[in-house]
Amino acid sequence: MKPFSLIPLILTALALPALSAEPKPNVLVIVSDDQGYADAGFNGSKDIPTPNLDGLAKSGLRCTSGYVTHPFCSPTRAALMTGRYQQRFGHENNPVYQPGNASEGLPLSEKLLPSYLATAGVKTGWVGKWHLGATPEHAPWKRGFSETFGFIGGGHQFLDWKPKDNEYTILLVRDGESVEVPEHLTARFGEEASGFIKRHASEPWFLYLAFNAPHTPHQPTAEELAKFSGIQDPQRRQYAAQISLMDQAIGQVLQQLDATGQRQRTLIFFFSDNGGPLVANGPSAPDNTPLRGGKGQLYEGGVRVPFLISWPGTLPAGKDYDSPVSSLDVFATSLALAGVPMPTDVPHDSVNLIPFLKGETKAAPHPRLFWRVGGGQAHAVREGNWKLIRPKAKPAELYDLATDVGESKDQSATQPEVVARLSAELDAWDKELIAPVFGGLAAQRAKAAKKPAAQAPR
Fold it and tell me: Which of 5, 6, 128, 345 could form a disulfide with 150 if both were Cys (CB 3.0 to 4.6 A apart)?
């Protein structure tokens, strides 16, 4: 009879914790499109209920000074995907939808967030809007995403559309293959995101869920539109219904996280890609109250957005976080959770927010945040509560956001030393940037009108 040995049992016992260990945390990034600052219940909306977003706010932190890096769409997304101010690599315009033009899009020299995460075994998914270049080389499945579903251009119809040779009516794509038209785009994006979450419940993942709601065209379902019959303005009524449909789709995604037991290990970001437009959607559609300005501008209404961060059990719940944070910070935060070191080959501007949000680090995540539009048509910087806006060939404007979030009282005349200091910071930052590498919609429209190009939000 062979002697009994405890070694196999000990080895098996030692292996058990590794087998049952929780996967690394997931990261879910939800981006709305052209949503007004006040157009969510958690930011004070009275006429557009957003119960699922409000629930997300109660489960986490409302970032009262949450910013994006640009006042319109594609540049913001370029910074989100790279963790770098997009002007560092010349992505300062919205690219023209030209599948044969490799210069119109996020430069191929840039390595995107999902490519870094893949090295750590993280499953990466994109659902929704891309708008970072239309050539095959620029496609999300070529830039690090392992599963993809959505549209490649800058916008799309929502309802009752048929494929045509037009950016807003082309077929959707799934992993590089064309797919048929869904009944309604917003609802389908929620379904696709939920499916991704369910499929990968046992492994770490990163999901970029980029809605094109409530961007135009406003095409909610008739049933949803009827719920907002009390809103007199027809444009705002349609806009409100689109936000409501998006909120429902987000609710479906959150329910899937709960159903699969993943909520406690999933960090969720929610923010808009820029402020609500003042003209494109009609003057009474989005509401950026109490902020000044809107999409395309460097006033707070263009770059400060509805912004939530939730991680139940790890981050505080139902609290406000008032220090400035940026959509840039998705990059470093996601890498940290995946155990991937921050790259050092090029400058990055992203910050891992977790120590700040948990209160382990008392300082502000960013000493300063910077903005530039139109290759230098205007600049802005926020340092503490001071915000300097410097339009080209016009006097600088200075605002104290602690007492004047609506930027109505220019203090440049009484605070010349602050203006000089922040102007010097802007000049130093600007020297690190390059000129736009593609003209995009601005150049296309200027050529059509035969006049000099200016910034062209869309």
Answer: 128
Q: Is the pLDDT of residue 2 over 60?
A: no
CB distance 324 to 365 below 8 Å: yes
Distance CA 58, CA 66 (A): 17
Please, what is the angle between helix 51-58 and helix 234-259, to 10°?
50
**Can you tell me whether residue 334 is helix, strand or coil?**
helix
Q: Are 349 and 308 in contact (CB under 8 A)?
A: no
Amino acid at 17: P
Closest CA to 268 of 193, 360, 364, 342: 193
| Residues 64, 392: Cα–Cα separation, whole Å | 29
Q: What is the pLDDT of residues 129-161, one digit of tens each?
A: 999 999 999 999 999 999 999 999 999 999 988
Residue-wise pLDDT for 270-305, tens only, equals: 999 999 999 654 556 899 999 999 999 999 999 999
pLDDT per residue over 363-411, tens digit each? 999 999 999 999 999 999 999 999 999 999 899 999 999 999 999 999 9
Residues in the chain: 458
| C-alpha dist (Å) from residue 170 to 163, 186, 380, 432 | 5, 16, 37, 38
Domains of the chain plus CATH, in order, are 24-357 (3.40.720.10), 376-434 (3.30.1120.10)
List residues with catalytic annotation: 73, 131
Tokens 């290990």 found at: 265
Structure tokens of 124? 């990466």
Q: Are 389 and 371 in contact (CB under 8 A)?
A: no
- Taking a C-beta distance cutoff of 8 angstroms, is the pair 222, 242 a contact? no
Strand-by-strand arrangement of the 397-400 sheet: 368-373, 378-383, 386-391, 397-400
What is the 3 state secondary structure string of 197-208?
Answer: HHHCCCCCEEEE
pTM for the model: 0.93
Is the bond preceding 290 in cis, omega lying within 30 degrees of 0? Answer: yes
